[in-house]
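Good morning,

Both structures are done.
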Amino acid sequence: MSPASIVPLPLRRRAVFVSDVHLGSKHCHAAEFADFLQGLRCDKLYLVGDIVDLWWMSQRRAAWGSAQYRVVEALHALARAGTELIYVPGNHDRSIRRFCGLTLPRMQVRRRAIHLTADGRRLLVTHGDDYDAVTQFGGMQEKFGDWLYDRILTGNKLTNQVRRRFGKRYWSLADFLKRQSGAAERYISRFVQAGLDDARKRGLDGIVCGHIHRASLFERDGCVYANDGDWVESLTALVEEADGALRLLTHTGETVSMLPPRAPRALPRDEELPHAA
C-alpha cells in the first residue's frame, strides 16, 4: 500500500497504544505500520509488547528491510517531536524486561503501567502474557496451534497480496478463520475475563492489552476492556482523544469502535453538601 493511499491522522491524540508488531518476523506488516506512525501526532505512545519479535529472530531468519528501518525512523521522529514513549515488553521481546524501571533516552521501560485518561479513568497497561496460565491449553495441542497459526498467517499475507492487485482493501483471513473456531473463541473469552478480573483486583477502571491478536473495545460492568490488536492480522491501534474518549482505529485511520468519555460526576445538591465546621 502506497503512502498516498493512507488517510492522514491530523488530530493530535492524547495517547496511542500499539502492540504485537512483531518486527523481524515474516508476518509483520511493517510498511503499513510505518505509514501509520508517520501520520501520527500524540503526547504518549505506549508500545504494549512484542514490538520486536526477538523470539522469531533467534529461531528463524529475520525479515528486515527498508520497511522495518522506516518504522525505527518514525519512532525516532515521534520522540524528537516530543512524544513520550513507554515500552511495556511482551513475551516475544521478553529479554527487554531486564531494563524495566529504567528511563532510557526518550523512552521508559515498564513491566506494566497505569494510564490516567483525561476523564479520570485509571487503566492497567500490560501485554497480556501474564494470563497465559489461565487461558492456554498446554502440551501438544498448544504446539499444534502455534504451527497452524503460522500457516494461517502465511495464507493471510498471500490472500492480501492478491486482493491488493485487484484494488481491494485489507481483509484478515486469519481473524475470519479464528472466529469460526469454537476453541479459539473460548480461549479469547477466558483471556478477556482474566484481564478484567486483574484490573478490578487492582482497583482500576479497566485494562489495555494486546497478546491475543484480537482488537476489541468495550465496557463490561463498568470496567473497560481495550485490546489494541496487532500488526500481523488486524492492523489496528487504540487512541485516547483529548476528552478521554477511547477509539479503536484501523491502519488507515478508520474507527472500528469507540467508548465515549466518562460522564462527569454530578455535584451534590446544596442540601447534601457537608456543613463547614
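Second structure follows.
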Amino acid sequence: MKRSVFSFLGLISFILFSFLSSSNLFSKTLTVDVNLKRPLITVDCLKCHEDDVSPSGFANSVHGQNGCTSCHVDIFDLEKHEEGEIVPGKPKCGLCHQQVCKEYKKSVHKVLAHMDCWACHKNIHTLTKWDGNKKAIIMKCTSCHEKKKYVTSGHAKAIIAGNNDSAACSDCHGLHNTKILHSSVYKYPKQAREFYTRTCNKCHANKELMERNNKTVISVASYKRTYHGKVQELGYPTHVAGCADCHTSHSILPKNDPNSPINERNLIKNCSKCHLKANKNFVKYFAHPDFKNKNKYPLLFWTVVAMDALIISVLIFFWFHTFLWWRKSYWEKYKRMISGEANKDAELKSMTFIRFKWRDRILHFVMMMSFFGLATTGLPLKYPNSGWARVIIGFLGGPDVAGFLHRTSAIFLSACFFIVVGLGIHFLFFNKKIKGNWKERLTGPDSFWFRKKDFQDLAQMIRWFIDMDDPPKFDRFTYWEKFDIMAVFWGMMAIGISGAVLWWPEFTSKFLPGWVFNIAEIIHSEEALLAIVFIFTVHFFNTHFIPTKFPMNYAIFTGRITGEELIEERALQYERLKEEGKLEEVKTSYPDILTNLISGIIGFAALTVGLIFIVLIAWALFKH
C-alpha cells in the first residue's frame, strides 16, 4: 500500500516535470513520437520503467532537467519501442559531455578495457552533483583497482581523515583522461617516469599547499639540485631515479613507517635497484639536500659558503686587475702610436725566439681540447633549466654519450696533469741543464713556483696601473702565469678527486659515507664553474685580449715570440740569456705560413667557443 502511494506521488510529480520538459524549458533534446504526433515526455517512459527508474530519484539527479530521450535519442516511436521493433542503444553521453568524451576516448579505460561511461557512473538515473569530497573518487577507483597499496598510503589516509588537499587518484591520473602509460609502466618507462615526477612536483612544489599541510617546501627544489634531478630536467628521465623510483607510485609512506621504502632499514634494498653494490655508507647520501639549512646540513652549508667565497674573491680580484691593466695598457699603446715610437725596434721585430717547445705546445693543445670537452658536457648539467642545455645534450646524443665524453676528456686532462707533475719532478731533481740544487731550482727564474719577487711584481704592477710607478721587469714567467698554473693544479686536485668520487660512488662508499657525494657534487660543480669563467675571461684577456696582443697571441701555438716581445715583456729573461750566452740557442726562424694559418684557425675557434660559453653562463644566471 505504501509503495503504491509513493509511486502515485512520484508519478504526479513527474507528470508536472514532464510537462515542463515537453515545453522545452529544461529539456536539451526533444523527441517527437511519429505516431502520437507529440513530444515524448518522461511520464510516457515511466509507465513501463517505473520499477527501473525512481521518479523522485531521477527528478533530483543531475540529469533531472533532461527528458529520457535526451540520452536515449533513438526512441522516437513509442509504439514500435513497445512492440520491440526499436531497441534503445547506448546512451549518447557525448551530446552534452563533448569534451569529457573526447578525453575519455583516448584513455586506458576506453582503449584497453573498453569501458563505457556507466561502468563508473552506474547510478546514472540518481546521480547527484559531486560535492568535491575526494573520498568518493577513492571509493569509485578502488572498486576495481587494488586497494591495499594506495589506501594504506599517507595520501589516502589524509583524505579519509578529511584533508581534501591530499592527492586522490584523480589528482595524479585524471578523472577521464587517464593515459595508457599509467597502467603500462614497463612498456612506457620514459613517459611513466616523466608523468610521476611531473605529477609529484605539481603539488610538492606548491609552497602554500605544503605549508598549509605542514610538509617540507624544499623537496622538489632540493631534488633538482642532484644529478638525478638535473638529468630529469634535461629531458632524460629513464636514465635516473625519479620520485616513484624511491618513494613508489602508490604506497607512499612517511620515513618513520617500517614499511616505507625510504625507511632506514629499507634504504639499501631501495637504492640497490639501481646501484647494485649499495651499502650502509652509500645510503647516507642526502637525496634532498638543503644547502641553506646550516643546522641540518652544516657540512653542505659551509662547503657552499667556502666555494662561493672562493669564486667571488678570485673573480673580483682578477676582473679588477684586468680592468686596470686594460685601461693602462690601452693608454700606453695609444701614446706610443701618436708619438711614433711603435716602429722604433724594426730590427728586433725581425728576430724570433723560442718561447715554448713542441712538448709544451702539444700538452697545451690536448689540455685545451679536454677542457672544452669538459665544459661542453658539464655546463648543461650545471644549468639544466636553460634552453641551450637541452640543445647541447641532444646534439651530443643524450646524457649517456655526454657522460662518456666527459669522462674521456677528464682522462686526457688528468694525463696532462700527471705529465706536468712528472716534468716538474724531472726539472727539480734530474735535469742537468739547470744549475743549483732542488731548492734553488724551485725558487729560480725557470720555475712555476711563487717567489718573493712575484709579490713585489704584483705590488709594482698595481702602482703602474694607477700611474704611480714604472712597470715591473719580468723573467721567464710572470706572476699571473704562475697563478694560472697553480690554479690548474688546485683545480685538478679539487675537480679530479671530487669527480672520481662521483664516477665510482659504490667503490667510494666502501670507505666514506654517502654525504661525501653531496660535498663532491658541490666542489666539482663550483670549482668547474670557477675554472671555466676564469679561463674564458681572465686568462683570455691576459693572453690574447690585452691591447698589446689583441686580437690573439700566437705564441702558444707557434711556440715563438718576437725579439721586441722578449725585451719588453720579459726583460730579465732577455738579459739573463744574453749574459749566459744562450740567446743564440733560443733564436729561431719565423713560423711558416701554414703554421701561422693553422695557429690562427685553432686560436680564433677556441676564443669564439670560450666567449660563447660565457654568454650562455650569463644567460643561465640571468634567467635563474
